[in-house]
Amino acid sequence: MKKIFLGLVASGLLSACSTDPETLQQANDTYQKSEISLPNFTPLANGGVNLPTQDATYELPKINIQKGATVDIRPPSTPLAIIKNSLTQFDGERSLIVYPDDQASLYNLQQVQRLLKEENIDSTINGEILTTDWHNTGRSDDKANTEIQYQVEQVSARDAGALAVSVKQMRRDGIIFTPSVAEKQRYTSTRLNRFVTDLTNAYNAQQQALSYAVVGPFQSGLITDGNGRTALGMDAGFVQAWEKLGSVLPKIGFEIKSETAGRGQRELKYSPLDKEDWLRLGVNEPELEKGTYFMQISAIGKQSSLVITDEKNKALNGESAQAVYQALGALLGK
């Protein structure tokens, strides 16, 4: 008897935990069966007794109630102001977040494209607009074969930047349909919140790794990067290379003015050293003008590369590049 009872309980639980998308979108109550007519009541037999006449004031009307439109019970999604000093809004088509301009190096289309690549979602960037390829919505409460294309726009102003996510197209079983305003809000705000959260978490994790990094010597050498520029190849990951370069660049005259660790960039101010200082590092003094320069680290796995450019984004080349990178290599190996 106990086994039969337990079997009935288990069966009830399994039927209640349905994964059907329809049941996740609709309430499972009697309202959904409201096309059933109101009950009719028949008078009682009086048995020879005169009963009081029924008062029609509170009599239920004899009508047939038609079932209304299906109600979507899923709670609404809204864009969240996760970035410090940011503002969010859904304008009926797009979910957007506006943030201070100094955050644009972290929250931009290139970073968004990197996140999509990690999800195996291809995308293209045309100017300030990114468009994704067709991909599954990834929501358990969607019907099968529901696909979507997003459009992400980056807007830059004098003191602020913004990311705006909109639905370009949706289709189900290969048939394109127009989502409702509520659906547009649900999909765009969820995707925007995911972008911002993932970028913020990655940046915080990188900052934490930098703060606890143990930096030791490593080998390096001259290479040519994917863009055909002379670069310094380093046998070290991003964290180790970033920290070590921060300590050795000033030793060859490059003072660090500002930096964005999330993108591996630093702004440098170069002041020429004495000729003897360069000779101590085993190289001749490079022909570099005093002024502003920039450095960029690119990392792939446990290796990374460094490129130094001038104010016009022109990379160091020739004997100047060779002297600077060889001097850095000597300091990095200590």
UniProtKB/TrEMBL annotation:
A Gene Ontology BP annotation from the UniProt entry: Gram-negative-bacterium-type cell outer membrane assembly
Localisation per UniProt entry: Cell outer membrane
Membrane topology: Lipid-anchor
Function of the molecule: Part of the outer membrane protein assembly complex, which is involved in assembly and insertion of beta-barrel proteins into the outer membrane.
HAMAP family given in the database record: OM_assembly_BamC
Family: Belongs to the BamC family.
Record protein name field: Outer membrane protein assembly factor BamC
